[in-house]
Amino acid sequence: MLQCKLSDSALLSVIVPIYNVEDYLSQCVDSLLKQTVPVHEIILVDDGSTDLSAQLCDSYEKRDNRIRVFHINNSGVSYARNFGVEQSTGNFILFVDPDDMLRRDAVSLIYPLLSPPQKQETVVFSYKKVADNGRLIEETEESRSFPKDGLVSPKQAVEHLLEEHIQNFIWRVVFAKSIWQNNSIRFPIGRVYCEDMSVMYQILMNSGSVIFLNQKLYLYRQREGSRTYRMTSKTIEDMRFAFLSRDNDVRGVMPSLSGLCNLQLDKMSYVTYIDSYLISDKKRAKQLRADSVRELKGINKVSRLRKVIGRKGLFVIFLAQLNVADPVVNSMRIILNGFRTLRNKISM
Predict the structure, then answer these.
(1) Which of 78, 61, 50, 62 is nearest to 70 (CA)?
(2) For the chain, give me the number of helices (H) and strands (E)?
(3) Which domains are delineated in the chain?
(4) What is the dihedral of CA 265, 143, 16, 249, to 10 degrees?
(5) Model pLDDT for residues 226-246, shown as the tens digit of each residue
(6) What count of Cα atoms within 13 Å lies in the side-chain half-sphere of residue 75?
(7) CA distance 164 to 266
(8) Which of 68-82, 94-108, 141-155 is predicted with the least confidence, judged by mean pLDDT?
(9) What angle do CA 235, 239, 245 make, to 5 degrees?
(10) What global pTM score does this model have?
(11) What distance lies between CA 131 and its chain's CA centroid?
């Protein structure tokens, strides 16, 4: 058990990027206001909402002086988050999505772990998936893999990330603002997919140390109509950008993790190949598949498939072989056929 003294110098700024979430925003903000230990400030960045979200933000600002509201032209979640950090006055940062919630005791459990800001420590915690009504949906992918190490080095933290013991969700970390400022960290503007991946490793890599708090403090809502993605060449290219940027940076700073970087690039290539079958631009899809084959060909990477896609991925491939008339299963069949083709190409 980590024994830490509550730091009087820890001032937590919570940043909430908002776009058309009038049905969920109150639950989100209320979960922040009702923390058993109060946060320093809550920054609501209204990203050009066209529903009642903007009015809700303004009403909350009038009710509590810790809430600061900014209305900006619609520029995307990356810009809204970057903007929020720029406006913050705290020395620690936490992002919260506007349809999600924090457990009521979250801040009380996080604050005692925060050392003076100059030590640049980061706290990583776990989460629950919940339905619209707040009901627990399922155990998360990391329920069994979440690290139980407590205090670790930046290298160990990045290793956990590359081994996928933790998922690339930026809302599950509290970090010193100086990490962001001193290393010019920003969410990539114009990228609509995997933007969290582009930032998560940078926070961990540039921390003084990282504390894993094995508590499910964040309630991650799974809802219809949320920000989901239809697979396009743009989403695939954004995914590849995130993988390649991370690979380049981690190898440069932590070369001993190159083996794990290789596995992650394998995963990128496999996912590129399979997802290309789901996009409508057939010419671009063909080029993406050619790129993937070139990246994988000549190396015996098929034997590493289990490490790359995991047991769940293998189960999906198994289900895809079932003779069931269902749109999801039909999509799985497309993926299976793509995988078989890829396997044959890189084994030639």
Answers:
(1) 61
(2) 12, 10
(3) 12-221 (3.90.550.10), 233-347 (no CATH)
(4) -20
(5) 545 578 899 999 999 999 999
(6) 16
(7) 14
(8) 141-155
(9) 140
(10) 0.85
(11) 19
